[in-house]
UniProtKB/TrEMBL annotation:
Function: Catalyzes the formation of NAD(+) from nicotinamide mononucleotide (NMN) and ATP. Can also use the deamidated form; nicotinic acid mononucleotide (NaMN) as substrate with the same efficiency. Can use triazofurin monophosphate (TrMP) as substrate. Can also use GTP and ITP as nucleotide donors. Also catalyzes the reverse reaction, i.e. the pyrophosphorolytic cleavage of NAD(+). For the pyrophosphorolytic activity, can use NAD(+), NADH, NaAD, nicotinic acid adenine dinucleotide phosphate (NHD), nicotinamide guanine dinucleotide (NGD) as substrates.
InterPro entries in UniProt: Cyt_trans-like (IPR004821), Euk_NMN_adenylyltrnsfrase (IPR051182), NadD/NMNAT (IPR005248), NMNAT_euk (IPR045094), Rossmann-like_a/b/a_fold (IPR014729)
Protein name: Nicotinamide-nucleotide adenylyltransferase
Cofactor requirement: Mg(2+)
Organism in which the protein naturally occurs: Candolleomyces aberdarensis
Entry keyword annotation includes Nucleotide-binding: yes
Known partners and oligomeric status: Homotetramer.
Length: 288
């Protein structure tokens, strides 16, 4: 349920020593006739792949050619370790790899470790956090004429993730209404997860849902990358070289049971804790 502030939570809990990354946020718009937008991709990123980075490029092309939005910022937001999805490496490594990938990707992508370094946060709350940081704390952006503009925060996700929004028991209705009604989403087509199937039950929010087809089919997934690594196969050119080097240097993903804290060579796997139903969804299998 949204609070009087319009957020689904009354206050945000920050991880220790947290500061919101905004070094690549474009504070002055190029075209004052457009609506400024920040893209937020939530997910495991275990590890981040070129497909995750391609999502942003596809959205950039789509937005430029088909909408009146202007992208002023773009973020990867890796999920908390408490999400407990199989294959979820500990957040320190996932955030480090996302940072290496973002560095490699030109000068617009950023990584927000806010949800990664704390307890599980629902996506509705994550989007509220971005809205709060960008619009309330930083004060939004300006046009070249110095006029203030509030930034529209939007979710960027693959069609497999959006399909889960029609599965009973995964997302709460009020959160869906908040995510799709207040914010909106750009959906990237994903092999094996149809766009129609993904949005059939979300028609109520159709005006805030933008569907982006993949013109070059590519079904790289983190699951496949982890499988290759366990089998001693090369993953080069499926993810940035800096990320491949990081994985090799830290001996990551060699062990099938490795998840959460079971990250470095020689470290014991962490014991799995039962999920708390109140704040944490079942990690849903996504396309692999
Ligand atoms: N090949 C792809 N095509 C379109 N979207 C993708 C693709 N890979 C990942 N995504 C999207 O990226 C976001 C984060 O994905 P996530 O980190 O869960 O990657 P994944 O490859 O699905 O992981 P895993 O294989 O571990 O389930 C999700 O919205 C997901 O739908
Ligand atoms: O907020 C929710 O209720 C919710 C329900 C299911 C999934 N999510 C988010 O969706 C993302 C799923 O990532 P993945 O790796 O399972 O595809 C992750 O960021 C989760 O926090 C969020």
């Amino acid at each position: 349920m949204a609070s009087s502030s319009g957020y689904v939570t009354e206050g945000f809990t920050n991880p220790p020593n947290y500061s919101f990354p905004h070094h690549r946020l474009q504070r002055v718009m190029k075209d004052s006739t457009k609506t400024p937008v920040v893209l937020v991709a939530c997910g495991s990123f275990s590890p981040v792949t070129y497909l995750h980075l391609r999502m942003f490029e596809m959205a950039k092309d789509y937005i430029r050619h088909n909408t009146d939005f202007e992208i002023v910022g773009a973020y990867l937001s890796p999920v908390s370790d408490m999400y407990k999805k199989p294959g979820l490496l500990n957040s320190r490594h996932r955030v480090n790899m996302c940072n290496l990938a973002a560095e490699d990707s030109g000068n617009w992508l950023m990584v927000d470790p806010w949800e990664a370094f704390q307890s599980y946060q629902r996506t509705a709350i994550v989007l509220d956090h971005f809205d709060y940081e960008v619009n309330t704390v930083l004060g939004g952006v300006q046009t070249e004429e110095g006029e203030h503009r509030s930034v529209h925060v939007m979710l960027l996700a693959g069609s497999d993730l959006i399909s889960t929004m029609s599965e009973p028991g995964v997302w709460s209705y009020s959160d869906l209404d908040h995510i799709l009604g207040r914010y909106g989403v750009f959906i990237i087509e994903r092999a094996g997860s149809g766009m129609d199937q993904a949005t059939d039950n979300l028609a109520k929010w159709r005006h805030n849902i933008y569907m982006i087809n993949q013109l070059i089919q590519n079904d790289v997934s983190s699951t496949k990358v982890r499988l290759f690594l366990r089998r001693g196969l090369s993953v080069r050119y499926l993810l940035p070289n800096t990320v491949v080097d990081y994985i090799e240097q830290n001996g990551l993903y060699l062990d099938e049971t490795a998840s959460n804290s079971a990250t470095d060579k020689g470290k014991e796997p962490a014991k799995k804790e039962p999920p708390s139903q109140s704040s944490q969804p079942q990690a849903t299998p996504s396309g692999c």
